[in-house]
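Batch job 17 of 40 flagged for manual review because the log was empty.
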Amino acid sequence: MAEKRVVRPVKSSSAKPAAVKKARRPEVRLPPLAPWTGGELEPDGDYDGVEFTAADFTGQDGGGATFMDCALEGCGFDEARLTRARVLDSVLTGIRGVGTDLAEATLRDVEVVDARLGGVQLHGSVLERVVVRGGKIEYLNLRKARLKDVVFDGCVLVEPDFGGARLDRVEFQGCVVRGADLTGAVLTDVDLRGVAELSIARGVDRLAGAVISPAQLFDLAPAFAAEIGVRVE
């Protein structure tokens, strides 16, 4: 008697890729605030429920200070030192500064609106549940920083440096990103599809873990070709 052969259905290997995870946005609800009475920032100072309006902190030292449930509007931070500062549950509107030092700072549940910053140092910092909406930031240094649940919305980033940084659930929406450096960066659930203008100066090979649009793939084709040594003539 002939042996029966059982034909099993072949499972398709073309599994649908998992959707990119969305960033969790901060929900900042400020309590009644006390107006800032002036003076200089203090190293390791503690500012809780304070409203800073048009204050000028140029060159001041607030290293290690904590800002909790604060509103900062129209404040200047040129060459201010805020290393290892902690900014928690706060809203920063219209802040400006060149050379502001926020190295190893912590920003958690923070909204940054219409900032005008240049050469701001955030290397080694931790950003969690942060929205950067509008404004322009040039030469942003986020080397070896950790970004989790961060949204860049409608802002302009000129030559941002993400070298060695870890980006987890980071979204770029309606913004411009020019000359980004991704050298050594690790990306997980990074959504770049909403970037209106995208160029990567270094580290295009680190885009694994990011999602881009077909149009962006076309724009980045020369960078990809250069990365693998292909000449396009």
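Reviewer: the log was empty due to a logging misconfiguration, but the result itself is present. Residues 214-227 form the longest helix (14 residues). Unflagging and moving on to job 18.
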